[in-house]
Amino acid sequence: MASWGEASESRLIGKRIPRLSGRDKVTGKAKYTFDINRPGMLYGRILRSEIAHANVVGVDLSEAEALPGVKAVIQIVEVGNKIRYQGQEIAAVAAETDDIAKDAIRLIHVDLEELPHVVTEADAMAEDAPQIRDDWAGNQSNPNVREEGDLEGGFAQAAVEVEATYHAPVQTHVCLETHGNVAEWEDEQNLTVWASTQGVFGVRNDLAGSFNLPANQVRVITEHMGGGFGSKFGPGVEGRRVAELARITGRPVKLMLTRKAEHLVAGNRPSMTQHVRAGATGDGRLIAYDMKGHGTGGISSGAGFQAPYVYDVPNLRTERVNVAVNVGNQRAMRAPGHPQGAFAMDSLMDELAEKLGMNPLEFRRINDPSEVRQAQYTLGAQEIGWHRRNSVPGAGTGVKKRGMGVGSGQWGGGGGRGTQARVTINSDGTVEAVTGTQDIGTGIRTAIAIIVAEEFGLAPTDIMVTVGDSGPGLPSGGSGGSQTTASVAPVIKTAAAAAKQKLFERIAPQLNAPVGDLRVGNRTIYVVSDRTKTIKWELATGQLGMDSISEGGEWDEELRQGGVAGTQFAEVEVDTEIGEVRVIKIVAVQDCGLAINRLTTESQINGGVIMGLGQALLEERLMDALTGRMLNANLEDYKVPGTFEIPEIKSIVFDTHRKVTGIGEPPCIPTPGAIANAVYNAIGVRVRELPITPDKILTALAEKKA
Amino acid sequence: MPDKEKKQGTSISRRSFLKGVGTGTVAATVAPSVLIGGEKAADAQEGDAVASATIQLNINGKPYQVEVEARTTLLTVLRDGIDTSGNNVDLTGAKLICDRGECGGCTVMVDGSLVYACMMLAMDAQDKQITTVEGLADGDDLHPVQEAFIQHDALMCGFCTPGFVVSSAALLSENTKPTLEEIKVGLSGNTCRCGTYPFIFDAVKAASKKM
To answer: Is B142 in contact with B148 (CB distance < 8 Å)?
Structure first.
C-alpha cells in the first residue's frame, strides 16, 4: 500500500520550500496571459450595456468598422434580444492597438428600449416588483425546505432563545489579472489559446465544442495566472468571441476584461440574509434552529449558504430562496456559501452563549462534534490569550476598546480521479514531471517538484515541471474546491515511484542486488543491505541512452483524504469615536492533513484570513436602485485589504494525518465570524451586517446609548 | 474623475489625454507641459483625431525609439510598445490592474521616484531614467528584495509582485532599516488580492538586513 511515510523519513515533504516560479515572478519574467505578445497581434475589446434591463432595438457597427486600424467588429446580441444586466456583451472589436479598439467601441451605436429593472433584493421582493424572470414568480425561486427532528419539541426544551437577522452582501472576486485570453489560429483547424483560467482542459473542451473541432486541435496554455478564486472556469463569452475575432482576422487577438467589466460580469459571491430563531438548553446544548433566508446570485440562481453550520442541532427547519436581480451572475467564490454561513452561525452561537451566561468557547466545546476543532480550540485560545478577553462585553474603558472572538469552519478538499501525469528520467539525469493541472498561485508546480524530488533523492529545483498546458494531452481537473493538490499529488507520487522502479530494474544487475534492496538519496543509488555498493545518479541514468524512462501514475485513494476543520481567534480594537475596527491579531489554526510544502501552505492560510478580513470589514458590491448600475466597479471604491489593514497573523499548520488535503479555500471561512464576535466583545453591541463599517458601529453604539 | 469610457465622439483633444490623478499614496507625476518631438506632432491641433510622434525613452539603461500617440501612457509603451525597428519592447513585468492609479501594479521608477506607469504619459517620460522590475537585478544577481521575496514566499499568483518589488526596493533605498509601520506606509500604494502581505513585510525586513 502506498503511503507518504513518516514525517521523520521525509527530507522535503512538509518542509518550507520556496516556490519554483519565484525567480520569474520577482524579475517580471513570468508571462501571464495578459503579458503574451504574439507577432501581428490585435487587441480586442467588448462593448457592454450600461442599462440593466432592456430590449435590443438596433445595433449599428458601420462607423466602428470604418475606423482605420479596426480589423473586425462582431455583434454579440441580436435585435430582439433582451439585456438583463449592466455589463452584458453587445459587440466586440479587434484593432491594431488597444487605444483604437477603445475608440472603436465608442463608435458602435446601440438602440436599447429600457425596461423596468430591479437590482436590489428589497426591490426584487417588493409586491409590485417588475417580473424579471419568467420562471420565478415574484422574482424568487421555489423555497428549498429542510426539516430534521422535532422543531417545536426542541424549542420546548430550550432554556434560552435568540432571534436575529444576519446579512452579508455580495462580494466580487477582484482577480488582479482580469479574465481574458489570447487566441491564435495556426490554420482553420488548429487553435491555440493562452487563457487566464483555473482549468485549461475545461477551456479546451468548451472551445473545441464551440468551434466544432476535435479537442486535441485546441491547445490551451496557462503558464502563470493572476488570481481566480473560483471565477475562472470555462472560456466565457470573452473567450469564445476572441477566438472568433482571431478566426475572422487571421491574426492573434488578445482580449482582457476591463477592471469595470471584471466587477460586473466575471462573477461574485452571492449575498445572504437569514432570519434565525434558535434555542439552547440550560446545560448548553443547541437544541432547536429555525431559519428562513434568501440571497441573490444575480439574474441566475446559486445563492446557497450553509445554515446551520459546523455545530450539531438535532431539531431544525430551514427554508431558503434565491432572489433574481438584474445584475451579473454569481460564480463560485472561495468556499462558496461557507464564510457568510459561518459568520451568521458563529454570531448566533455567541448570542446564545451570552444568554446562557456561558463562555462562548465553552458553548462551542459542548456543541462541536469535531475532535480536531476541539483540539484547535485549546491551541488557538492559548495563542490568542483568550483569558485576557473581556468577561463582560464592552467592559473596557477609554475610546479604543479591545475584544476577542472565535469562529469555525470546515471543508472537503480530498481531491478526486481524473488526473493523468508522466514522470520522465532522461539519460542526462534530468527529471521531468508533466500534468495538465494549472498553478493558479497556490504553488502546485512546486508541490509536484517536491514529491518527485523526495522520491528520487534530488532537489526540487532539479525537477522540470510542466503544468498549465493541454498540449501534452495529460488531463487534470479544474482548480476548484481546494481539490488540486489532493487530486494531483497521488498521481505524481505513483508516477515517480513507477519511474524509479524502472530505473532500479535497469541498475540492479550492476549492483548485484535485488531491485527491492535499492534506494536512492543524495544523488546516489545504493544497496540498503550493503552501503558500499553505490552508483551516482548521473552514471545510472547515463546508461539509459535514448531509452529514457517515462511512466504514468495512478489515482490512489490511500494517499489523500478530504475533510478539514479550522478555527480562528480574532483580537480587534474598536475606536468608539470614529467607529473604526482595527484587527490586532488573528490566530488561524487550520487542519491541513499532510502539508506538502509548509511555506506555501502558510501563505494560503494568510491569504484566506486576509480575504475573510476584507469580507468582514470592507467589501460590498453597491448597486444603485435607480439607475441599475454598480456604484463601485473599480478598485478605489470597492475596498480590498491593503497594507494598513493587515494584522499580526499567526497561521498554524495543524498537522492531523499523513494524507494529502487541499486547503485553498477553508482559511477564509472562520474569519468574518471571529471578527464580528470580537467586535461585540469589545463594545458590547452587535453588528449583524457585513461589512462592519464605521457607520454601522457608530449607529449601533448610538442605539445602545438611546 | 471623468469616465473615459463614456466620452462621446471621435475627436480627441489633448486635454482628454490626461487621465485623472490617482488617490494612492504613490502619486503619479504628470508634467505641466507636454513635449512632443517630430513633425507629425508639431502639426497636431486641438481636435485632430490622433497625433503621433517618435520619441526616445531610456528604460533600464537602454534607449528605445518608439512611436506614440499623445495619449499613450508609459505603461502602454512598456507592455505593448514596438520600437522603430519593429521589435516589441515587451517589458511586461509592470501590470495594468486598476487602470486608475490605485493599485500599484504598474509601479516603476522614474529618475529614482516611484511612478504609476498607467498614470504617466509616455512623452512625459522622455529624458528621464526609467527603471522597471526587469532592470532591478544586476545580471543574474538579484536585488536583495527579489531574493528575499523568493525565500519568504512573498508572492502567490505573483501578478502584483513586480509592483511590490519595485516599491520595496525604492523604500529600502530611502530607508534602509524601516520599521513594520514604515514598511506598511511605504507599500500602501500597492494592492495584493491573494493576501501575501505578511510575508511581504517579512521579506522587506529580511532584505533590509542585507542593504
So the answer is: no
Q: How far is A513 from chain B (nearest CA, A)?
A: 41
Query: CA of B49 to nearest chain A CA: how many angstroms apart?
Result: 10
Q: Which domains does chain B have, with CATH numbers?
A: 14-135 (3.10.20.30), 144-210 (1.10.150.120)
| A463 Cβ neighbours under 8 A, 6+ residues apart | A431, A432, A433, A448, A449, A452, A453
Give the residue from A54, A87, A122, A56 showing the smallest Cα distance to A629. Answer: A87
Decide: A311 and A360 in contact? Cβ < 8 Å. Answer: no
A563-610, pLDDT tens digit by residue? 999 999 999 999 999 999 999 999 999 999 999 999 999 999 999 999
Does any domain span residue A43?
yes
Which residues of chain A does B134 touch, with a Cβ-Cβ cutoff of 8 Å?
27-29
* A495/A445 Cα distance (integer angstroms): 15
Maximum Cα–Cα distance for chain B, whole Å? 55
Closest CA–CA distance from residue B32 to any residue of chain A (Å): 23
Q: Nearest to residue A91, comparing CAs of A80, A104, A651?
A: A104
Q: Is residue A27 part of a domain?
A: no
Contact at CB, B156 and A23, closer than 8 angstroms:
no
User: Could you read off the pLDDT of A499-541 as tens digits, one per residue?
Assistant: 999 999 999 999 999 999 999 999 999 999 999 999 999 999 9
* Closest chain B residue to A105, measured at CA: B5
What's the predicted TM-score (pTM) here?
0.94
For A205-248, what is the HEC assignment? HHHHHHCCCCHHHEEEECCECCCCCCCCCCCHHHHHHHHHHHHH
